[in-house]
Design a protein that fits this description.
By secondary structure, the protein is an alpha+beta fold. It has 26 helices and 32 strands. Strands 8, 9, 10, 11, 12, 13 and 16 form a 7-stranded mixed beta sheet that branches. It has a 4-stranded parallel beta sheet with strand order 2-1-24-25, with helices on one face. The chain binds one RNA strand through helix 7, helix 10, strand 17, strand 18 and strand 27.
RNA sequence: GCCCAGGUGGCGGAACAGGUAGACGCAGACGACUUAAAAUCGUCCGGCUUUGGCCGUGCCGGUUCGAGUCCGGCCCUGGGCACCA
């Protein structure tokens, strides 16, 4: 055996072995339970970054662990290949997005192979391949016919200088990132998917997704934002028109002191003609980006309209204001304001000197004070006509009933979730398969004309998608009337591709259909792994899409991902690695210097997967050092010849202690890797084991047998994490089949048994000593031993013992006063 | 602004069901080996201290025999906010 650990050589050999044996090629096999382990596929930016390495190492560790447990594992990989960066690169370097993307894919594929990830490459796919996106187009036309697709207007960021639509990230402080021009909001027609039709199912099914982090389920619940309330209308004095508003707090109806209109509301637009203050608000609303974070942090401003609304129950006149915090996108673009019981309304009322009228008092009878802020809890009504004295919940129902009875309102469920706008005015995306005909309107592209292929040999300028000025692309004939017509030139949101790739991996070679029965064999994904930043959008869209696929009869499960692991970010110097901060670490350099196993080991050791990971160069060296030591331990052991067979009955005390450590490590690592996903503590346990093995120095037959068992355990446990070195060491330890096919070790219960236990002794909850007792000692014996301890006696000497708390196997606490 | 997380030694982290705070690793100090350095191996490594202890898990308060862990309030950092992926 080589005297030195040479990762380069060992890793090349292992990778060649796996490739030659087609180790990771997955076949459907009903004789073994399937396990579909999927890491979120990358955007092919050109090089792997540490976030990818972390994500894919976690996935590979889980996959290899499950394989050792006897599962038939599928672990595929592909490319989320459409998107904005390719267009930016094209502008900078003059390379068409398609060529740039395919070069990046080739480079990153090699990097992934160099890291030793066990993917079934025969299933590789790229979303920019027409054979992939054609099925997305096919499904879209189907959903159109089903009524799940519709056209409506939506706001985009318009750069008036570059004459182009900008993404939110391209709007910096209200200005276009390249031109520096003030960005305008423009309403343009776009395609929408009715995700809100599935809102209730998406919400309710979260309760059963117990393999998902509660944090993510919570974020999705809040995003969907189901609320029950009342929709009611206020007459406008002197106008033949009504304001319809939605409120979740009809119990505060008597506290309404003003109405708020969105600046984009038709009435606001009308009044802006003759009112400079309103015109200014409308102007403000038209400029700047569309991102919610920008809108929500704007200073709250408003202007009186002079109009008055009529309170539906009291007939009182209520002033109508235009307010910039009222959003046209939500509900009707109008709100009733109750400053006493809503903080945002309170702030606006305070700023503009509008009355604050409390009508709900705390249920506990405590004094109500709204001088410093709104009281937004439920309580008991006051000054609310016939409803005074009712608790909020009863008043909610009573007021709703009254409004319904008078035909002025009705109970309604509202969602925060909006329908999914899938149109993008970009080039590098899947063409939306629709044709606009002057005679027939919007017509879906017939199946036999799919895919609508995106022309790839194009030049990208800073303003607008090239296919919008390419008659050879958009000129066509109407499939219905045969007349001249134009293709849709918008492309799909890239979330469309990433919403179903997990199913396509099951049957990536199927060219006659979107999916086949193999999709149902492999899905749902048993374990999905990816960044927490995808907690809402990608994961919600994919859930929606899966339900749509189900309703189309393409899969039969309800949810795409049974278990979800959201991995934290990779940081350096406490902040996110990024090119602009210049604090990136190139995984490729590390692999070349230390080997893939060291990079994998450090990444898994430095932090548990869900936490952020602080990068440390010296920590990487520590990981490398450990692998050298493990290599050395096996080398020295093997150099002494084959180890004799182990006879557990014939061990001395030290040998039994060491063997107990071996099996404790197996038990801990199995729990850490299999159940808790805390790979860092599993590695720490193996390090402890190796420290103990290294100190043993026992050359007796029994000692060498225990050593063999211990080294095998260490290699088996580390095999999913550092697969190349373990592949090598396993053969060195005398095995003839590869460790990748070995069974995961099981702890021997007999080896775990202890004769004695050490109890912690406390007095009044503070540590005062230790006592060693037989493992089966009862409370009486423990108490006797504890009180005999001299240090304990010092602390209880002049006190009365009130009680003794005994926790078997752990501690005994003497409470004395 | 809204929603969701996280704050533990010089650093990354451990403590899994409320029971020894700091496992494991990094950095550092000292020692061994060496002509020397690197590598390797060994010992020490939260603060204070009268050496008996006392203090210590972002801050303030509470529950408990016992709180890093549970509860209430605050501060700071990070993720998401619908066209980055």
């Amino acid at each position: 055996m080589d005297n030195q650990y040479r990762p380069k050589q060992i890793e090349a050999e292992a990778q060649a072995y796996w490739e030659e044996q087609q180790t990771f090629r997955a076949q459907e096999d009903n004789g073994r339970p399937k396990y579909y382990c999927l890491s979120m596929f990358p955007y092919p930016s050109g090089r792997l970054h540490m976030g990818h390495v972390r994500n894919y190492t976690i996935g590979d560790v889980v996959s290899r662990y499950k394989r050792m447990q006897g599962y038939n594992v599928l672990q595929p990989m592909g490319w989320d290949a459409f998107g904005l960066p390719a267009e930016n690169a094209a502008m900078e370097r003059g390379v068409p997005p398609a060529a740039w993307t395919r070069e990046n894919i080739a480079a990153m594929r090699e990097q992934l192979k160099g890291l030793g990830f066990g993917y079934d490459w025969s299933r590789e796919l790229a979303t920019c391949d027409p054979e992939y996106y054609r099925w997305e187009q096919w499904l879209f036309t189907r959903l159109y016919r089903k009524g799940l697709v519709y056209r409506d207007t939506a706001a985009v960021n318009w750069d008036p200088v570059d004459q182009t639509v900008l993404a939110n990230e391209q709007v910096i402080e209200g200005r276009g990132w390249r031109s520096g021009a003030l960005v305008e909001r423009r309403e343009i027609p776009q395609w929408f998917l009715r995700i809100t039709d599935y809102a209730d199912e998406l919400l309710e099914a979260l309760d059963a997704l117990d393999g998902w982090p509660e944090q993510v389920r919570n974020m999705q619940r809040n995003w969907i934002g189901r609320s029950e309330g009342v929709e009611l209308s206020f007459d406008l004095a002197g106008r033949d028109e009504q304001l319809t508003v939605f409120t979740t707090r009809p119990d505060t109806l008597y506290g309404v002191t003003y109405m708020g209109l969105a600046p984009e509301h038709p009435i606001s637009l009308e009044l802006a003609e003759g009112n400079p203050a309103i015109a200014e608000l409308v102007e403000e609303a038209r400029s700047g980006g569309t991102a919610e974070a920008d809108l929500a942090t704007r200073e709250k401003r408003g202007a009186a309209t002079g109009l008055e609304a009529v309170h539906p129950l009291t007939g009182e006149r209520i002033p109508v204001w235009v307010a910039n915090f009222v959003l046209m996108e939500y509900g009707s673009g109008a709100v009733m304001a109750v400053p006493a019981h809503d903080q945002r309304d309170w702030e606006f009322a305070t700023a503009y000197g509008l009355p604050i009228r409390p009508v709900v008092h705390p249920a506990d009878g405590s004094e109500l004070d709204v001088s410093a802020g709104a009281f937004s809890d439920y309580g008991v009504l006051a000054d609310s006509g016939p409803f005074s004295g009712m608790p909020s919940d009863r008043a909610f129902a009573a007021i709703a009933e009254r409004l319904e009875g008078e035909g002025r309102g009705q109970r309604r469920v509202q969602y925060r979730l909006r329908d999914w706008g899938v149109s993008r005015q970009r080039y590098w995306g899947a063409p939306i398969p629709m044709i606009h005909c002057a005679e027939c309107g919007a017509v879906p592209v017939p199946d036999d004309q799919l895919p609508v292929t995106l022309p790839e040999d194009v030049a990208i300028s800073g303003s607008g998608s090239p296919i919008k000025s390419m008659p050879s692309f958009y000129e066509t004939t109407c499939p219905e009337c045969g007349g001249a017509a134009e293709r849709e030139t918008d492309t799909f949101d890239t979330f469309m591709e990433s919403s179903w790739y997990f199913a396509r991996f099951a049957c990536a070679d199927q060219n006659g259909a979107m999916l086949d029965e193999r999709a149902d064999h492999w899905t749902p994904v048993d374990q999905y792994i990816g960044g927490i930043e995808h907690a809402v959008l990608h994961l919600l869209y994919a859930r929606f899409y899966h339900k749509v696929l189900r309703d189309e009869g393409l899969v039969s499960s309800n949810e795409p991902f049974t278990r979800l692991l959201t991995q934290g970010m990779v940081l350096k110097d406490g902040t996110k690695m990024s090119k602009s901060k210049g604090n990136t670490v190139d995984p490729q350099e590390l692999v070349e210097r230390f080997g893939a196993d060291t990079v994998r080991l450090f990444t898994m050791f430095a932090a548990p997967p869900e936490q952020s990971l602080e990068w440390s160069d010296s920590g990487v060296e520590g990981a490398s050092r450990f692998l050298r030591r493990l290599h050395g331990l096996v080398r020295d052991h093997v150099a002494r010849g084959p180890a004799p067979a182990l006879d557990p009955q014939a061990l001395g005390d030290a040998q039994r202690d060491l063997r107990r450590k071996v099996h404790e490590t197996i038990a801990k690592a199995s729990d850490d890797i299999g159940k808790r996903f805390t790979f860092n503590t599993a590695i720490a346990a193996v390090m402890e084991l190796c420290n103990a093995l290294g100190k043993a120095g026992d050359d007796s037959d029994a000692g060498r047998a225990v050593m063999q068992e211990g080294l095998e355990a260490a290699v088996l446990i580390l095999a999913p994490i550092t697969p190349h070195l373990c592949h090598h060491l396993w053969f060195q330890l005398g095995h003839t089949t590869p460790v990748v096919d070995a069974a995961w070790p099981e702890a021997d219960e007999q080896a775990l048994v202890r004769d004695e236990v050490e109890l912690v002794v406390q007095v009044n909850g503070k540590l005062r000593g230790h006592v060693t007792l037989p493992a089966d000692a009862d409370e009486g014996q423990a108490r006797e031993a504890a009180l005999a301890e001299p240090n304990v006696q010092r602390f209880v000497a002049d006190k009365e013992i009130k009680k003794v708390v005994f926790v078997a196997g752990k501690l005994i606490n003497v409470v004395a006063k």
